């Protein structure tokens, strides 16, 4: 189903009777087993008149933009998180995420459209609840769905008839049905009859100026047809296009496919970078040349390693689940191995560059440029910068950093012990280091000034590719 926002409120019949897109059209509709479900019809009516109150559980880089989206469409929103500092900031009208302006938060709070709280009892007043909690990997590389399970239990404690629950957290196919549904049904309410449950993968892309959250299509799969239709109707009030699929599992798998596609192609170009470097060929020039082909090629770019919540983590959710079916995901595993090796490759290039100047990495003062996992954002999750910092520390280097979007060094999972000083990007700082290591190619960095004053630059992003005057001290890694 594809729905577009208009100034008219769609009728109950037209919203409830819309068909599935593409292959999902062939799927039978089990809603006939619940003829005239008055609970569903009441929920749908509240959604289409925007009288429904929505709650968002988990107010991070996915949840807070979702709060903003639905509040901007006139819905009353409850924002729920266990981190009291986030709750306090929001209730003071302050945002802690670059992509969500504080002015918008302040307006929602002042207009009483947004209630931020750490008390789960408020969930009982919501008609729809979005779950946007973290799904990391454990230390041994297995999916950690403990936050999903705990959140489902918390919702189950206050679950009432007529509520819609939508999981947005990325996980392996089967998570919604195998974890969420049993927890929600444990007090006797029945999914698809008394309440509704769906999965819709988040597609937040921080720093993307071409597509807003409203413009990015939402995939929706339900535990049953009524659940799917309720979730599709809700998203249809907020985004320009909703794509319904036959099941939660199909929607969960679609999200993994999106990220595995990127993971595998990034691994390919990272491998080519190392291969071409040995051959004396500039991989960036090769990518630029190949990109002139108007069909059959999409450019991916090498870097110091994968970052963000999606690409470094999500593929392993599928490879873990696949073993349950005696299937070995060789491409995924190989891509993961290649991408994990990239920080080590960068270290070897840095050591080689320092040796060329008669220096050792041990005792060298290194200025790391960028902590965020990608350009022009303030999100450090799973950034390769932290692995590089760990390796630099092990080698005995003295490291400082500068990131205009992350002025205070964050506490990151697995790297809680790290404390690295942030320094201003001045001429004195640049000339006082042994090397500047470009990890994130922020637009705010003045690369000419960096190249002019730093004695050596190791560039993992080709950020200095347009400079010619200082080529003799710029090393691509």
Which structural traits does this protein have?
477 residues, 2 domains, disordered N terminus, elongated, Rossmann fold, alpha/beta, 6-stranded parallel sheet
Description:
The protein is α/β, with parallel strands linked by helices and 477 residues long. The protein folds into two domains: 235 residues, Rossmann fold, CATH 3.40.50; 210 residues, NAD(P)-binding Rossmann-like Domain (Rossmann fold). Helix content is 37%, strand content 12%. The chain contains 16 helices and 14 strands. It has an eight-stranded mixed β-sheet with strand order 3-2-1-4-5-6-7-8, with helices on both faces. Helix 8 links the parallel strand 7 and strand 8. The chain is elongated, with a radius of gyration of 24 Å.
Uncertain runs are 1-33
> Which word captures the global form?
elongated
Estimate percent helicity: 25-40%
Numbering strands along the chain, what is their spatial order in the largest sheet?
3-2-1-4-5-6-7-8
CATH class of the largest domain, please?
Alpha Beta
Instruction: Report the mean per-residue pLDDT as an integer.
Output: 91
Number of helices: 16
Oligomeric organization of the protein chains: single chain
Structural class designation: alpha/beta
Main sheet properties: 8 strands, mixed
């Amino acid at each position: 189903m594809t729905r577009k926002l208009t100034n008219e409120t769609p009728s109950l019949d037209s919203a409830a009777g819309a068909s599935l897109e593409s292959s999902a059209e062939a799927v039978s509709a089990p809603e006939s087993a619940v003829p005239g479900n008055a609970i569903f019809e009441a929920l749908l009516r509240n959604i289409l008149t925007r009288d429904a109150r929505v709650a968002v559980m988990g107010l991070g880089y996915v949840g807070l933009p979702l709060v903003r989206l639905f509040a901007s469409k006139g819905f009353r929103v409850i924002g729920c998180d266990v981190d009291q500092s986030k709750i306090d900031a929001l209730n003071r009208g302050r945002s802690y995420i670059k992509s969500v302006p504080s002015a918008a938060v302040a307006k929602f709070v002042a207009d009483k459209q947004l209630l931020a709280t750490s008390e789960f009892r408020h969930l009982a007043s919501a008609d729809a609840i979005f779950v946007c909690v973290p799904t990391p990997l454990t230390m041994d590389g297995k999916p950690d769905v403990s936050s999903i399970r705990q959140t489902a239990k918390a919702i189950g404690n206050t679950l009432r008839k007529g509520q819609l629950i939508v999981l947005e957290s990325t996980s392996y196919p089967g998570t919604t049905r195998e974890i969420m549904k049993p927890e929600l049904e444990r007090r006797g309410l029945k999914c698809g009859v008394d309440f509704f449950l769906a999965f819709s993968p988040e597609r937040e892309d921080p720093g993307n100026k071409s597509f807003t959250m409203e413009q990015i299509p939402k995939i929706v799969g339900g535990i049953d047809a009524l659940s799917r239709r309720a979730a599709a109707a809700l998203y249809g009030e907020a985004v320009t296009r909703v794509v319904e699929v036959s099941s939660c599992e199909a929607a969960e798998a679609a999200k993994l496919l999106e990220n595995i596609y990127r993971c595998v192609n990034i691994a390919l170009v990272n491998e080519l970078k190392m291969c071409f470097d040995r051959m004396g060929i500039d991989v960036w020039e090769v990518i630029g040349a190949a990109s002139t082909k108007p069909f059959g090629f999409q450019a991916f770019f090498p870097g110091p390693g994968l970052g963000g919540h999606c690409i470094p983590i999500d593929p392993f959710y599928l490879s873990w689940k696949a073993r349950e079916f005696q299937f070995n995901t060789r491409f995924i595993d190989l891509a993961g191995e290649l991408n994990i090796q990239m920080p080590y490759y960068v270290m070897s290039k840095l050591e080689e560059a320092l040796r060329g100047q008669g220096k050792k990495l041990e005792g060298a003062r290194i200025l790391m440029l960028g902590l965020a996992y990608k350009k022009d954002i303030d999100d450090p999750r799973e950034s390769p910068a932290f692995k590089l910092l760990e390796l630099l520390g092990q080698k005995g280097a003295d490291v400082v950093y500068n990131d205009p979007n992350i002025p205070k060094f964050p506490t990151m999972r697995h790297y809680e012990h790290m404390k690295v000083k942030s320094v201003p990007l001045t001429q004195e700082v640049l000339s006082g280091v042994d090397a500047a290591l470009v990890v994130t190619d922020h637009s705010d960095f003045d690369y000419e000034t960096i190249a002019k004053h730093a004695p050596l630059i190791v560039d993992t992003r080709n950020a200095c590719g347009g400079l010619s005057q200082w080529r003799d001290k710029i090393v691509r890694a």
